[in-house]
Amino acid sequence: MVLSFDEAGALLDEMAEEFPPEFYEDLNGGILLLPEAMPDPDCPGEDLYIMGEYCNDQMGRYINLYYGSFAALAGLEDWSEEDWEDELWETLSHEFTHHIEGLAGERGLEIKDADFMEQFRREREEGD
Questions:
Q1: Could you state, in order of their start, the residue ranges of all structural domains in the chain?
Q2: Of 4, 58, 62, nearest in space to 35 by CA
Q3: Residue 88 near residue 5 (C-beta atoms within 8 A)
Q4: What's residue 128's pLDDT?
Q5: What is the distance between the alpha carbons of residues 55 and 60, in angstroms, rounded to a whole number?
Q6: Gap between the Cα atoms of 68 and 8, Å rounded
Q7: pLDDT of the residue at 87
Q8: Who's near 96: CB < 8 A, 6+ residues apart?
Q9: Is residue 12 packed enough to be buried (19+ CB in 10 Å), middle (13-18) or exposed (0-12)?
Q10: Which run of H or of E encompasses 30?
Q11: Quick check: 54 and 63 in contact, CB under 8 A?
Q12: Which of 95, 42, 27 is nearest to 65 (CA)?
């Protein structure tokens, strides 16, 4: 099941209200649901997508979630509405963790993400 952009946005709005106000400290750009898919540039030709990203740049601090990435995986894996909820929640929570760590000057999750991708690449190369 592929939810529409508006349906996914409504779910995301509901979820965002569940996080405490402290999570929004200095998140001046808020949470954005963008329509495009974001294939992972490090894995061309793979069904690997960037679901979201925490940004801290000249525009400020904000979280992007990529509807098209969610929709692509939902179509490949035949997601239910519950799967959408789980994936949106997990991704939003993940990006909030990047934000909070960024405010604290920490990089633990960033390092963990890099380690995960390195392990993923090694396993793919060994499987070829």
A1: 5-127
A2: 4
A3: no
A4: 61
A5: 8
A6: 11
A7: 97
A8: 19, 23, 54, 63
A9: buried
A10: strand 30-34
A11: yes
A12: 95
Averages of pLDDT over each 10 residues, the chain, 128 residues: 96 97 96 96 82 96 98 94 97 97 94 91 77
Q: Specify the pLDDT at position 120.
A: 83
Please report the DSSP string for 88-106 in residue order. Answer: HHHHHHHHHHHHHHHHHT-
Query: What global pTM score does this model have?
Result: 0.91
| Fold that domain 5-127 belongs to in CATH | Zincin-like (3.30.2010)
Q: Per the structure block, which two tokens stand in for 73?
A: 């995986």
Residues in CB range of 24: below 8 A, 6 or more apart? 30
Largest CA distance in the chain: 47
